[in-house]
Amino acid sequence: MTAGEQAKAKTEQAEGKLKEVAGSAIGNGRMAAEGQAEKSTGDAREAKEKAKDAFKH
After folding, report:
1. What is the pLDDT at residue 57?
2. pLDDT at position 18, please?
3. Prediction pTM value
4. Which parts of the chain register pLDDT below 70?
5. What is residue 3's predicted lDDT score, i.e. its pLDDT?
6. Residue 18: which H helix or E strand, with range?
7. What are residue 2's phi and psi, to 5 degrees?
8. What is the DSSP letter of 23?
9. Residues contacting 24, CB < 8 A, separation 6+
10. Where is this region: Disordered (predicted)?
11. Which residues have CB under 8 Å from 35's CB, separation 6+?
12. Beta-carbon neighbour count of residue 19 at 10 Å?
């Protein structure tokens, strides 16, 4: 996993989680859903990079 991709994945996960929690706290379902989607995107990016690393070796 390249450092740049790893950082991007972690950033997406953190921003998504923050948006999800903030949306839930203020009762904004759309914001919470967007945060969950963003977190999932980060999770998918991280999984993709881990899979690429597994096939390199």
Report:
1. 67
2. 97
3. 0.82
4. 1, 57
5. 82
6. helix 3-26
7. -70, 150
8. H
9. 32
10. 1-57
11. 15, 16, 17, 18, 19, 20, 21, 22, 23
12. 20
Quick check: 23 and 34 in contact, CB under 8 A?
A: yes
57: three-class secondary structure by DSSP: coil
User: How many residues belong to the chain?
Assistant: 57
Backbone angles phi and psi of 55, in degrees to 5: -85, -15
How far apart (Å, rounded) are the C-alpha atoms in residues 11 and 37? Answer: 13
Distance CA 52, CA 10 (A): 17
What tokens appear for 15 in the block? Answer: 């921003």
Question: Can you read off the two tokens belonging to residue 18?
Answer: 């923050």
Give the pair of three-digit tokens for residue 42.
């980060």
Q: Which residue has the tokens 């839930």?
A: 24
